Amino acid sequence: MYKRALVFAYGLGSYALFLATFLYAIGFVGNAFVGHTLDGPASGNLALDLAIDLGLLLAFALQHSVMARPAFKRWWTRYVPEPAERSTYVLASSLALIALFAFWRPLGGEVWNLDGVAGLVMLGLCAFGWGLVLFSTFLINHFDLFGLRQVWLHLTDVPYRPIGFRTPGPYKLIRHPLYLGWLFAFWATPVMTVTHLVFALATTGYILVAIRFEERDLVAHLGDAYRRYRERVPMLIPFARKPVPVVAHEAELRSPL
């Protein structure tokens, strides 16, 4: 029971760090409420600053993608208790983001600067994006996605059962509403600086690559069930293809950040 309580405390701590990191990320990208933000005065060494920023983004992308792969999970759970595997992933992702926040170098420059109604529309779209990200996690079981369900079931000695594959709400319209939310959050800004543009381009590229790997894993896990879903429901743009009702199937969890 003592070991189970430790695993549960570890899961709670990992989730608390994620929650703080997520809230900080909103301020970081939106240049508000936090001390170190995406934009700011440039240091004057554009090449070095750009290299550091791209390195930080690459480090997060590698951590986020490699640790999400089934082969890595099978290897990792030889050393980490299986109920804590998801919490460890969440912890590592949070630490990678914290490093990005701490060492990010603003590049300066300005691509567009919108005020008045246009600026308010951009702020609204950005808020919609963050809301869609959080809403999507609850649709696919927020607490399982971030490891709390696993450590709680372990604490109470209840066998873990994977969450069934469902298509609630926006999942009937697009396969990846969570990723679409990130795109709105990163691109919708009243002031698009060169720094922000680099960040948005890099994260968009990562999202498109991540979708490819994630869907490959889902097809391997679900087979024809996910292939049919992928054929009928568009990836990111609603109504790009006419969605058809899809029945529930067992599925792998989607990525958290």
Sheet bearing the most strands, described? Answer: 2 strands, antiparallel
The amount of helix comes to: 55-70%
What number of structural domains do the residues give? 1
Radius of gyration equals 19 Å
- Overall pLDDT, averaged? 90
Poorly predicted runs are 243-257
Total DSSP helices:
10
Structural class: mainly alpha
SSE succession: HHHHEHHHEHEHHE
In whole angstroms, the N-to-C terminal distance is 32 Å
Enumerate the strands of the largest sheet in spatial order, edge to edge or round the barrel: 1-3
Query: Outline, from the CA principal axes?
Result: globular
Beta-strand residue percentage: under 5%
Number of strand elements:
4
Task: Give me a quick take on this structure.
The chain is built from 10 helices and 4 strands.
How is the topology of this model organized?
Layout: H1 2-30, H2 46-66, H3 70-76, H4 85-103, E1 112-113, H5 116-139, H6 142-145, H7 148-155, E2 164-165, H8 177-187, E3 191-192, H9 194-222, H10 224-232, E4 249-250
Antiparallel strand pairs: 1-3, 2-4
Helix pairs in contact: 1-4, 1-7, 2-4, 2-9, 5-8, 8-9, 9-10
Provide an overview of this structure.
- It contains ten helices and four strands; from the N terminus they run H-H-H-H-E-H-H-H-E-H-E-H-H-E.
- Helix 9 crosses helix 10.
- The C terminus is likely disordered.
- It has 257 residues and is mainly α.
- 63% of the residues lie in helices and 3% in strands.
- It has one domain.
Give short descriptive properties of this protein.
257 residues; mainly alpha; two-stranded antiparallel ribbon; two-stranded antiparallel sheet; globular; disordered C terminus
